[in-house]
Amino acid sequence: MPQTFTYQFDTPTYKGTSSFSTGVFINGKFIDGSDNTTIDVLNPANGKLITQVSEGTPKDVDYAVECAQKAFDTVWGLNCPGTERGRLLYKLADLMEERLDEFAALEALDVGKAYNFAKGADVPGTVATIRYYAGWADKIHGKTIETTQDKISYTVHEPLGVVAQIIPWNFPLTMLSWKLGPAVAAGNCVILKPSEFTPLTALLFAQLTVEAGFPPGVINIIVGYGNTVGEALSHHMGIEKVAFTGSTLVGRKIMKSAAESNLKDITLELGGKSPGIVFDDCDLDQAVNWSVHGIYFNHGQVCAASSRIFVHAKIYDDFLAKFTERAKAIKLGDPFGADTYQGPQVSQQQYDRIMGYINAGKEAGATVHLGGERWGKEGYFIEPTIFTNNKPDMKIVREEIFGPVAVIMKFETDDEVIAQANDTVYGLAASVFSKNIDRALKTAQKLRAGSLWVNCASHVSPQVPFGGFKQSGIGRELGEYALEHYTAVKAVHINLGHQI
């Protein structure tokens, strides 16, 4: 039998107990992984062991696919009306909301994000997303199409079947809802792989799916490594689709695996190197505030982070001074601190990766205007960092750092900055700051990115699609658009008497 994780929180911001199974969750039950091995889950604030969870294997994937297919063929999919799917999703959202503080505490514990942010944004956003797709469950329909007088044609949108979903460690609960919400609402059965670094909220979520009344096999959660469970999901012939959020490098591997197996449908939300353009006619204080949020929110571990900040030469010095002042004021420390804004990076691996980029920037001749060093004596903390005197060909300007590192550059003309902003293999997001709405919208129209924020940054809603251009991905999540990736369109032709 798998172990039960029980943790007593006694922090300045949250006091309470959390308890749930650490097994793999298949067919409505927690069980040991087939090899009876475990994965260590570490606290990024101090590097110490939190707990161990069961390690999933390809054998567990096989079993989950078998159970999910049985559920799809008997109690879910076309066998379960949308009103019932919606009712269960609404119930699940209610159960999550009742334990909002506990979910936030678990996110702070194994992700390292500030508890107050998790409580104020991550968990409420997750609940809102589940509710949004609950409302869609009985509103997925096709069209009647006019052809000729002796024929009626119409379309139906049917669920795909068994789908796999692989989510990252930076927003574990948020990404779970972005993936699972539309898939389940549309009638699919899901096998979800959380990151091995941050599995705790997904396991508590699995427990709540039982309490909500979901039939066994509809939702399955397997914690495992990418090169085992992730690879098995991508190659499995019984899986009709794989949805992935993570690096472009891994996205390429998943795309290849999907092609080599059964030509799975895929959606990929991948890397970014998003520009923030600050024009000289902006509200300077608001541009600074949003730009600080755009790069340092969630410790810089955001795919859409505004990591390349272009500032008009006329206001560059003023912007840099105010931006520096705001960055210096960021409170680092215990994720459970009452005023903590930035906690640790998620792992030693991520810490080393970010420090590698910082060293590369120094070696290339960029100026460390602020930060660039470790913070504290334990855990994976990095100071908010600002690079100036950056050149377009530098590694820190071109590659995704995924940490609290801003590169700030000066520009003179609108055409110049648009060209620089688009000079990237990525196209996930961009921000534009200007009080001239014509200028802002014309610039937004010319930027090659899936999400454009005008006078704000990193501001998402369940109703609005999110995804990238170019090497930032394929497909869209959130909004009605996401449902298109979890249904297959069937055309039905009815002959009204045409003879042949």
Topology:
Layout: E1 4-10, E2 15-21, E3 24-26, E4 29-31, E5 38-43, E6 48-54, H1 58-74, H2 82-98, H3 100-111, H4 115-136, E7 144-145, E8 151-159, E9 162-166, H5 172-185, E10 189-193, H6 200-212, E11 219-221, H7 226-235, E12 241-245, H8 248-260, E13 265-269, E14 275-278, H9 284-296, E15 308-312, H10 316-328, H11 348-364, E16 367-370, E17 385-388, H12 395-398, E18 405-411, H13 414-422, E19 426-427, E20 429-433, H14 437-446, E21 451-454, E22 469-470, E23 473-474, H15 479-483, E24 487-495
Helix pairs in contact: 1-7, 2-4, 2-6, 3-4, 4-5, 7-8, 9-10
Structure in words:
There is one protein chain. This protein is α/β, with parallel strands linked by helices. It folds into two domains: 4-270 and 474-489, Aldehyde Dehydrogenase, Chain A, domain 1 (3-Layer(aba) Sandwich); 275-461, Aldehyde Dehydrogenase, Chain A, domain 2, CATH 3.40.309. The protein has 15 helices and 24 strands. The protein has helices spanning 58-74, 82-98, 100-111, 115-136, 172-185, 200-212, 226-235, 248-260, 284-296, 316-328, 348-364, 395-398, 414-422, 437-446, 479-483, and strands at residues 4-10, 15-21, 24-26, 29-31, 38-43, 48-54, 144-145, 151-159, 162-166, 189-193, 219-221, 241-245, 265-269, 275-278, 308-312, 367-370, 385-388, 405-411, 426-427, 429-433, 451-454, 469-470, 473-474, 487-495. The chain has a seven-stranded mixed beta sheet with strand order 16-17-18-15-14-20-21, with helices on both faces. The protein starts with a strand and ends in a 5-residue tail after the last strand. The model has no long low-confidence stretch (mean pLDDT 97).
